[in-house]
Amino acid sequence: MANNPRKQQSRGAKSALSPWRQQAESYLNHHRKVARDSAQRLWKSPVASMMTWTVMGVALALPVALMLLLASLEGVSAGWESSARVTAYLNDSVTIEEAQALKAEVADDSRVAEVELIDRDTALEEFRASSGLEDALDYLEGNPLPHTLLVTPSESSRTADGVDMLLTVIEGLDGVERVQVDLGWLQRLNAMTDLLGRAVWALALLLAAAVVLVIGNTVRLAIENRRDEILVAKLVGGTDAFVRRPFLYTGAWFGLGGGVVAWVLLQLSLWWLSGPVERLAGLYRSEFSLNGLSFDGALALIIAAMLLGWLGAWVAVKRHLDDIEPGEIAGG
Amino acid sequence: MIEFRQVTKRYDSDHTALRQVNFGLERGELAFLTGHSGAGKSTLLKLIMVMERPSAGEVIVGGQVLNTLPRRQVPYIRRHIGVVFQNHQLLFDRTVFDNVAMPLEVMGTPARDIGRRVRAALDKVGLLSKEKMNPLQLSGGEQQRVGIARAVVNKPPVLLADEPTGNLDPELSADIMRLFTEFSQVGVTVLIATHDIALINDLGRRTLTLDHGRLVAGVAGGRHG
């Protein structure tokens, strides 16, 4: 704390300047005392505090839950992307030799990891075996199936764009009738998660603003309740920082409680949802699973909540504390 | 210690609280400030505490011109001015000890020094045995003495009192005046705003009299400079 005016006019004041170490120590002690004191104040009105914590908790848990869901969805699409394969159907007129030449040509491309040629007879056999339409197939005059190339993209090309490029190249080859890739729904999912991601961020911003306002309002009430104390503190020479400090700590403690409540809510809903999600994923033979918050994530959530609480308190303090000036005290 | 040079305080265009007030108080001087109600007594005190700023003229406390003092420096000035109010402004959510400790806490005094100095101040006003009580449990005179202990606990060079004996019977008033006299004897500049003419006459000290914002008596007596 600055001491310059004290130096200039310490004629009457006998108090010697403490060494700065001692000052720093008492400054820290004061922080500790204020932090403890404001925590105790919250503790003394448990119902009101719990309500504020819950409001904060819900407001924070909602966007975080959506973000976790998104992260899980992205995990799914990443898993599928790695298994994406391009299927190239060749013209009916292409002979098996020409098909083998095409296979060699495609395999030379650096973006291609592996090419498999399925000739029309094998394809018919497989179809016969897997479709259960044996009898119906017997009625067909010839083999209606073309030769097919199954192209697996190399590691580096397994992105939506990479696969797209490869698709164009293969499509341009002579003898290729039609190219199919099972990426369509994947791209739609990607687009959807992108959109959802943005929506979640917008929601998160709105809810963060709501949290700041809720804490701001709560702290405003706390300021009103402690008006006398603020007046006296300002009268006896408390700096603005000194007067603000307990309220900023109050905001941070509200944030801490809100963050913890949010975490508990998340864990509870995760536990509640995990059974059904597993069953659903099992039905789709999917690896999909809802991921909870990691330890780091939980810590980040709580720290972010404390920062929001602190920010809310700051807004209230800025708006209301400076208005309280001891001018009206002295009567007579 | 306190000096007013041609100080004028105008609130609105038609309301002038102080008009060209000139006076000076030396270190260790005890003076009364009197006048009818609305004469400008509390305005004068507020100017010293930098709760108000003069419209014209200069207010100097401890060699520092307060007119141009930046807002953030105001708290440091207030740490050198003890104030006693008629309604004492004590906080009833904490003990007598904690009330008296406030000026030390805002200064960041180490905890061990706080205990020592608070007890010294309470001892001075004769309330050492009541440090753990709530101010509500005390009588009016005792509350006023707690207010005085708080005003002097950090040994300010200036002590202001606004109607400090307003609600007290003559005996208690005399007690409190004796305390103020003792402070002035150890070098504290004391300025007491009061209506209580008997009190003023008893002590026979310098009296600044305000009348409609003008200082009509007590200008002399302070050696300017």
From TrEMBL, chain A:
Keywords: Cell cycle, Cell division, Cell inner membrane, Cell membrane, Membrane, Transmembrane, Transmembrane helix. It comes from the Bacteria. It is found in: Cell inner membrane. InterPro entries: ABC3_permease_C, FtsX, FtsX_ECD, FtsX_proteobact-type. It is a multi-pass membrane protein. Residues 85-179 form the FtsX extracellular domain. Its main location: membrane. It holds the Pfam family FtsX. Forms a membrane-associated complex with FtsE. Belongs to the ABC-4 integral membrane protein family. FtsX subfamily. This is Cell division protein FtsX. The gene is ftsX.
UniProtKB/TrEMBL annotation, chain B:
InterPro entries: AAA+_ATPase, ABC_transporter-like_ATP-bd, ABC_transporter-like_CS, ABC_transpr_LolD-like, Cell_div_FtsE, P-loop_NTPase. SMART domains: AAA (SM00382). Residues 2-223 form the ABC transporter domain. Pfam families: ABC_tran. GO terms for biological process: cell division. It comes from the Bacteria. It is found in: Cell inner membrane; Cell membrane. Keywords: ATP-binding, Cell cycle, Cell division, Cell membrane, Membrane, Nucleotide-binding. One of its GO terms (molecular function) is ATP binding. Part of the ABC transporter FtsEX involved in cellular division. Important for assembly or stability of the septal ring. Homodimer. Forms a membrane-associated complex with FtsX. Belongs to the ABC transporter superfamily. This is Cell division ATP-binding protein FtsE. It comes from Marinobacter iranensis.
